[in-house]
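Write out the 3D structure for:
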Amino acid sequence: MQLHAKWVITCVCFLFLTGNVCLADDTAAPIRIGATVSLEGKFQEPSAMIQKAFIFWADEINQKGGLLGRRITLILYDDKSRPDLARALYKKLIEQVRVDLVFSPYSTPLTLAASEVSEQHEMVMMACAAAARKPWQRNFRYLFGLYAPANRQFIGLLDMMARKNHRTLSILYDETSAFNLDIVNGIHQWADTFDITIMYEQGFQDGRKALPHLVAAVKEKNAAGLILSAYPPDCYALLGLLQKEQYRPPVLAMPIAPVHPDFHKNAGDMADLVFSTSQWEPDERIPFPGTQRFVEKFTKFAGHLPSFHAVSAYAACRLYEQAVVQTESLDNKRLRDYIFSLDTVTLLGRFKVDHTGMQIGHNPFIIQWQKGKKQIVWPRKLQTAAPVL
């Protein structure tokens, strides 16, 4: 199924999802679920996965007869990767369109903005794409996370570096995002644990302007490892600069971009041996029920393999579905109480939150691109290949 920008516009766009089988009461009002997606800007690539997962789930539900006997209608707006626009659009969805439920946008910055609105209106938001701790430090009662926190995501990489006696590291990061700041804080914590020295560290606000100078500084330090914590456009820019400089450290890592199935196609030979943190991978070794079925059906639906962004969005949808079915209600207070009580396994992995709504049950792992294929290299029990470093 091809998804185009015209499907989602800044103005309201109703996506009526029809299936081959419909047992829902066509006379009943549909359940309206609202969200924003990023059709442009720095979040576009991972947000596209989330958009497809939302539509995949809604289509699946409608083919089975709807939810509570009512069809699902998705109402999606384009937030253009802008927190201010996301905030305004969630306000419109809740106050003017009067949706029954809301899904979350992609990224910590957009989730921070959108959840201010959903919390004010006491509406549940399953944050399917936010890993920073900041969203859960505001005493909110309706926001729940699915991702392992950002400060834990590179534990495995530093563990592997220490085992190979790679004891020096440089860090570059987009300092405009709480997610990237938490990544860096976690790297500091685990570098101390594994006796790895951080030789160079620098944040930036505009990667296009800053990265050429920062790459020169990194090259001069010549540490054994380089981690860039930034969103996909800056990740691809870094790879291009490293190629131009004909420089590459033994360990090169970045979040988000490398988990996308098109990373090798987009990055070319520079993709080889790049590490990344991941929340899930489309591999039969992932022990969570329904993995193979989801991979097959989503791939047929979307025309490509899912990344963990698609799986987290789908898992969030299924948690909403479970809460609605079990409570036989769309009342957000009842849904909130039910979700708080859960300790369960989703397609993404274990789901369990603490009293703030932050995810504490799920653990990340490390992938590496090897000879054009994405491999799980940590933890060892899930390895599809040994790490090369």
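The first helix runs from residue 44 to 63.
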